Amino acid sequence: MANNFTIPLQSQIQSYMIERHSDWPVQFCEWYANRFWDHYQSCGWKLSKNLDMKDWKAAVRNNWDDLKWPATDKLIEIKKNMPNKPVNSVEVMFENFKKGIIDKQGMADSYKRLRADGVLNFSREEVEQLVSWAGNNKEYGRYLAVKLYFKKRIDNDNPGSNDMAGKETAGNVPAGS
Questions:
Q1: DSSP three-state, residue 121
Q2: Residue 45: half-sphere exposure toward Cβ, Cα within 13 Å
Q3: 46 strand-pairing partners
């Protein structure tokens, strides 16, 4: 069986760790995700016994969720220096979207977290449009739903920006992007 593994972006790993560990500071998730990426990048994305990696998320869950020294010390250090403000991972995802550093897979992966946070609220017409664009592809539908949510936020933050010719707006998220 062919291995269709694609090396993840560091931002994907960061988003995944932030989603999995909302109780961890964002700075720590970013630091730990970068360690994960650097480790596997240095060994050609191979596992023990020189096996090819098939699922980086499984590697995070199985090998990187249990903090070990010095990572535990790093977490304690970061937590001591952090304000007692809860991390809003929705805002982190939105900022990554605006910066263009979250890709289709990262957005699809964010769907469950945004649903759980209750922010994905669409009109009946929007839901029908998403279904027609995605067809039977649930992963693509999740990506489109997150993209629509973020584009609506941008449109709401910039009233009047919909008047720009050719600009994508929440109302016309293209199915092919």
A1: coil
A2: 14
A3: 52
What are 92-134's pLDDT values in tens digits?
Answer: 778 878 888 777 777 777 787 777 777 888 888 888 888 888 8
Q: Are 105 and 168 in the same domain? A: yes
In angstroms, how far is the first alpha carbon of the chain from the final one? 30
Q: Using CA atoms, how far apart are residues 38 and 42, in angstroms rounded to an integer?
A: 6
Last residue of a domain, one of 81, 111, 126: 81
**pTM for the full model?**
0.46
Its domain, for residue 105, covers 89-172
Q: Is residue 2 part of a domain?
A: no
Residues 143 and 110 in one domain: yes
Q: Among the three residues 28, 50, 81, which one is the final residue of a domain in this structure?
A: 81
| Vertex 103: Cα angle to 96 and 145 (nearest 5) | 85
- 129-170 pLDDT, tens digit per residue, is 888 888 888 888 888 888 888 888 888 877 654 433 333 344
**The residue type at 170:** A
The residues, any chain, with a CB within 8 Å of residue 57's CB and separated by 6 or more, are: 16
Give domain status of residue 3, yes or no: no
